[in-house]
Amino acid sequence: MIKIQNLSKIYDAGGQKVIALDNINLTIKDGSIFGIIGLSGAGKSSLVRCINRLEEPTSGRIYIDDIDITSLDKKSLREARKKIGMIFQHFNLLSNATVFENVAFPLMIAGYPKKKIKERVYELLRLVDLEEKSQAYPSQLSGGQKQRVGIARALANHPRILLSDEATSALDPKTTKSILHLLKDINRKFGITIVIITHEMDVIKEICDEVAVIENGKIIEQASVVDLFTNPSADTTRTFIEDITESLPESIKISSKPDEKFVKISFRGSITSEPVISRMIKKFDVDVNIIKGSVDNVRDISIGKLLISITGNPDNILHSIEYLKETGLKVEVLTNELVDR
Ligand SMILES: Nc1ncnc2c1ncn2[C@@H]1O[C@H](COP(=O)(O)OP(=O)(O)OP(=O)(O)O)[C@@H](O)[C@H]1O
Ligand SMILES: [Mg+2]
């Protein structure tokens, strides 16, 4: 478990103080894939780099499995860091060393005997599917292959935690997917806790269990990924998730007639296939127009959003909306304010 308590980081940039992290509190469960999302400059890298003390916290505590990382001396920190692997956006490989040598590097530093190093390096290269590239240099590899080397190197010392700072940001969407699948595999196979920093909601959606949103050095929202998608509460979170009420025609904004209501429905999982709406139409004798709809696959759960207009007798409309709510759907009746947001 990673426990971050009252963590602050203030940089001194030529006499000017920059508050990068402002009293962060987070708990990251063992074996989970935890995403941290935020805009550029929000403090993501500062946060993840404090976890292994690549950056020294200004104040606060970080516990990993009940060891206070923030209080360790240099020697104990070196030991502790073996259990924390890290991968980077620009891979950070040694350019004049082969793939084999790059992966062997942390093992050499840890003082493994030569034979053991060779065994372990090939084991890792098999894991990331790069055995045949062991003698290649980084310049001879694609971006995705470079990141696979980065991952193999990060796993060399059997870490319990893997920190990933925008590890897929320099990759195309297809390569990004394959790297994310590899990370998921590693998480499942070895139970390694993975902390993923990103500015892309697609990354979070693909593999994270939980997510925290960071803004101006503060955590403004934290939830399971499915909850965040179904029901984002902070405005910044909404900007990461396309909302179906965005860019709607003027006619919807001005409509507030009692015999017509615009309703946004969010649902997840099996309810997707239930004919709730057709039942509602029959039961309450109203008309329904589907204006817009979307389905997002988050982990293995589908999250649907539907924007409908309900027309008919005003009382029947109100009953219809109640009925939708009773079926467990999240229902929002649009007001001008909501549409304008
Ligand atoms: N070494 C430094 N010295 C001074 N200020 C810094 C330093 N590193 C980061 N900052 C500042 O701290 C704030 C947070 O930066 P950080 O790199 O953590 O953001 P980020 O969320 O990782 O951004 P990005 O998505 O662009 O990588 C920014 O205002 C940044 O300018
Ligand atoms: Mg960063």
Brief digest:
The protein has helices at 44-51, 74-81, 99-109, 114-127, 143-155, 173-190, 201-207, 225-230, 235-240, 250-254, 276-284, 314-326, 336-340; strands at residues 2-13, 16-28, 33-37, 59-64, 67-68, 84-88, 161-165, 193-198, 210-215, 218-224, 260-268, 287-298, 301-311, 330-333. With 341 residues, it is an alpha/beta fold. The chain has 2 domains: 2-234, P-loop containing nucleotide triphosphate hydrolases (Rossmann fold), CATH 3.40.50.300; 250-340, Alpha-Beta Plaits, CATH 3.30.70.
What does this structure look like?
The protein is an alpha/beta fold and 341 residues long. It folds into two domains: 2-234, Rossmann fold; 250-340, ACT domain (Alpha-Beta Plaits, 2-Layer Sandwich). The chain contains 13 helices and 14 strands. It has helices at residues 44-51, 74-81, 99-109, 114-127, 143-155, 173-190, 201-207, 225-230, 235-240, 250-254, 276-284, 314-326, 336-340; strands spanning 2-13, 16-28, 33-37, 59-64, 67-68, 84-88, 161-165, 193-198, 210-215, 218-224, 260-268, 287-298, 301-311, 330-333. The strands form three sheets. It has a six-stranded mixed β-sheet, sandwiched between helices. A hairpin with a 2-residue loop joins strand 4 and strand 5. The longest helix has 18 residues, at 173-190. It starts with a strand and ends with a helix. The model has no long low-confidence stretch (mean pLDDT 91). The site of magnesium ion has 2 residues, from helix 1.
